[in-house]
């Protein structure tokens, strides 16, 4: 097989894989459901498990399940305290923007929260350098203690 043909085949495979990744990212929700208000701290209060959309339990330090959840508390109507499974606490200011809740920390990347159900939301990090959401890398938060 000629080198040109191999390059064409490999280029086609790369384009196909890229198109599949883009299609998968486009399948993730980008706007909250109508009956959940955005930018409201009380909607986030509770204990949460975190998974990938494929159902894999996630955390930077071990699994985040309902046996070992993250905790979110409200400090006022437009801010929350996020307490990780290790006890690290971060305060976020909340705002509503384009059918999403924006979590803004004092330092670091902001997060877009998109409600998919009363007890579930997708969270997307926003790249600090580009200001673009990482639509292809969401985490799914599910409220613990509800069916």
Please tell me about this protein's structure.
The protein is of the alpha+beta class. The chain has two domains: 1-30; 31-143, Lipocalin, CATH 2.40.128. It is built from one helix and eight strands; from the N terminus they run H-E-E-E-E-E-E-E-E. The protein has one helix spanning 3-27; strands at 46-51, 70-76, 79-83, 89-96, 101-105, 111-117, 120-125, 139-143. A hairpin with a 2-residue loop joins strand 6 (111-117) and strand 7 (120-125). The longest helix is centred in the N-terminal third of the chain and has 25 residues, at 3-27. The radius of gyration is 18 Å and the shape is globular.
Outline the fold blueprint.
Layout: H1 3-27, E1 46-51, E2 70-76, E3 79-83, E4 89-96, E5 101-105, E6 111-117, E7 120-125, E8 139-143
